[in-house]
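Box 3.1 A note on notation
Throughout this textbook, protein chains are presented in two layers. The first layer is the amino acid sequence; the second is a token string describing backbone geometry. Keep the layers aligned when reading.
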Amino acid sequence: MNYRHHFHAGNFADVMKHVLLLQLLTRLNAKDKPYRYIDTHGGAGKYNLSLAPSQKSGEFLTGIHRLVQLSEMEKRQAPESIQEFLKLVGKIREQEGKGSYPGSPWFALQAMRDIDKATVFEMQRDVFAELRHNIHDKRMGLHERDAYEGLFGVIPPKEKRGLVMIDPPYELERKDFPQLVELLQVAHSKWPTGVFAVWYPIKDRAMIDRFEKKMFKTGIRRQLVCEICVWPDDTPVGLNGCGLLVINPPWKFSEDADQALQWLFPHLRMSENGGHAAVRWLVGE
């Protein structure tokens, strides 16, 4: 497997995913009852953008680097969700150095309450060793296991409420993500009230259209699509944009997401013409 998140940490897609993850958990916090956060591909938990992999790709320069370079006034004018995200990034940079950038498990722990629990999977042995070194919290259980097998053993969780964050290495997925569609169908049938958030790359619009048609045909209700494309669709680059498909989004999340993405788009776009940010229902109630 060639995929290593170290090369992509802190890029525009990471920023989008982490902002929306924090919003999802904030909405889950609105109810008193505990929930379970499940991360299917946890990665290393934290990344050092000053090291060779990140420096080689330079992707963070058009992602988190752009946002931390904003003036304090510009940051204060951002939506509350963006301000909270930047505050947490500032926290880890202050504690561990300006090259530090967190992964989804770290962000989740910052949003979770004492009563909430988490389960994180990571199947790559060397990356799991980093995750275990980087994340120490009694609320979070770490598992060196293939989440496509392990997920079904932990849902539905005893808390009954919760979020599953799915961000697989797409080098292993074929064209319109059939393995992912199958995973979501089975997982949703086991836990129909769970919140499922699936991050995916946008490189080929026709492929994404086929993926959405497959998801529509599953019959699963309440599917929300959140997208940000920093390049026009026909630009021949590695990654034009990314999406987050959310099944059973919490109340008011769609409004939160739209506000955040509309603010992020002009700050992260790579072309003066084209590109977009949008939140829309693929399948409603």
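The chain is about 40% helix and 20% strand. Strands lie at 36-39, 46-48, 100-102, 117-121, 140-143, 162-166, 195-202, 223-229, 241-247, 276-283.
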